Amino acid sequence: MRKGLVEYCILSILARKEAYPSDILAELKEADMIVVEGTLYPLLIRDKNQGLLAYRWVESTQGPPRKYYYLTEKGREALAEMDSAWADMVRSIETLKNRQ
Amino acid sequence: MRKGLVEYCILSILARKEAYPSDILAELKEADMIVVEGTLYPLLIRDKNQGLLAYRWVESTQGPPRKYYYLTEKGREALAEMDSAWADMVRSIETLKNRQ
DNA sequence: ATTTAATACCTTGTTCAACAAAGTACTAAA
DNA sequence: TTTAGTACTTTGTTGAACAAGGTATTAAAT
N or C, which terminus of chain A has less Cβ within 10 Å? Predict the structure, then answer.
C-alpha cells in the first residue's frame, strides 16, 4: 500500500532530467533521503526491465562511462499514478490527524 | 526508512482515544487506508510487547468482550518521533518535486 | 610498465512491514 | 443446540530496502 517511496523519488528526479546513479544519490541526499547503492541499482534495473526507464552510455572525463537513465513514456504514466497515490496518502494522514 | 506507516496511523488514532481493533479498522477505512486484520492484530501485539500500547478488556452487548487498546507514555514518545519522521518525509518529497 | 586510487556498476543474502488465508473462541438469537 | 455474528489469533508468503561484499574501467602516481 505504501511501499515504493524510493522508487517514487527516483522517478520524480528522472522526470526533470536524465541522470546516472551518483547524480540520483546526491539529489536524494540533498533532500535528506538516504539511499544506498545496494538499493538503487537493483531498483533501476527493475524499472528498466519493466519499461519505465531506459538508459544510454555517456563517456566521462573522470572515470568509466556512465549509464544515464531517463523516463520512458510508460515511466511518466507510472509516475503520474504515484503522484496521485502520494497525494492520497498525505490526505489520509491529514484526515486521521485532524479528526476530533 | 519509510516503513511503518500503518503503525503511525494506528498510534495516531489511539492518541485521541482508546479503541478496539474494529474501531481502528473503521477509522482507517474512513481515511481511505485499507488495512486487513492479518496486519492489524500482529501489529497491536507487537506494539504492546514493546510497551507502546496497553489494553483493557471491555464487555460488549453484541458479542465477545473486546480488547480496548490505548497509548502508554512510551507510546506517546514513539508517536512524537513518528510525527517528526513523517514531516521530514513530506518535506523531502516537496524538496525533490519543487527543484528546477 | 605496473601499481594505486577513484569512479562506476553489480550481486548475494537478510530483514521485516504488510498481506493472504486460514483458524479458534465467545456470545446471543433462532 | 444449531446458526450467525463478532472478536481475536496464527502461519506462511511477498517484496522493498538494506548490508556487505564484489568486479570493471579509467587515469594518475610510481
Answer: C
